[in-house]
Amino acid sequence: MSVTTPQTQAQRTESGLLSTRPVWLVGILATLAGAVVTEAFALVTRAAGVPMEAASPGATEAAEIPVGGFFGGVVFWSVAGIVLAVVLARWAKRPARTFTVTTVALTALSLAGPAVAPHTATSTQIVLAASHVVAAAVVVPLLARRLSHVPR
Known about the structure:
Pfam families: DUF6069. Keywords: Membrane, Transmembrane, Transmembrane helix. The chain crosses the membrane at residues 22-45, 65-87, 99-117, 123-144. InterPro entries: DUF6069. The protein has helices at 17-20, 23-47, 69-91, 95-110, 112-115, 122-147; strands at 53-54, 63-64. The protein is mostly helical. The protein has one domain (18-53, 62-147). Strands 1-2 form a two-stranded antiparallel sheet. Strand 1 (53-54) and strand 2 (63-64) form a beta hairpin. Helix 2 runs antiparallel to helix 6 (122-147) and helix 3 (69-91) packs parallel to helix 6. The longest helix is centred in the last third of the chain and has 26 residues, at 122-147. It starts with 16 loop residues before the first helix and ends in a 5-residue tail after the last helix. The model has no long low-confidence stretch (mean pLDDT 92).
C-alpha cells in the first residue's frame, strides 16, 4: 500500500534584515552599497589605464569624469529606483516581479547612452556600460528581495 501526500507550498516566514526594514531604508542601503561598488570598479579601471573622459550628445569634446562621479551617478539614478520601489510596494499586485522587470529593462535602455557617447574612447564606453550593469547588479536584487516580502 502506498500513501500519497499533497504537495503544499509553505508561506515565507523569513525574517532577515531586508524583510523587516522599510522599503525606502533598504533602498538607501542598497544605493550606498551600489555606489561604493561601482566607484571601486571605476577606480580599478582608471588605475588600469582606461581614460575617464566622456562627452554628452552634442558636445564638441570629452570632459573628464571626476573621481566620485560614478558614486554620484549611482546615487542620483537610484533615487528614481527607490521611488519606484516604494510606489510598487504600495500599489502593485506583484511588486518584486514588477520592479525587477522594469529595472532590468531600464538598465538595458541605459546602455544606449555610453554606446552613442561622442568623442569617447571605446574602452571608456565599455567601462561606462559595465558600470551601469555593476550598479544594477547590486541595487536591484536587494530592493527586489525586500519587495518579495511585501504582504498581499
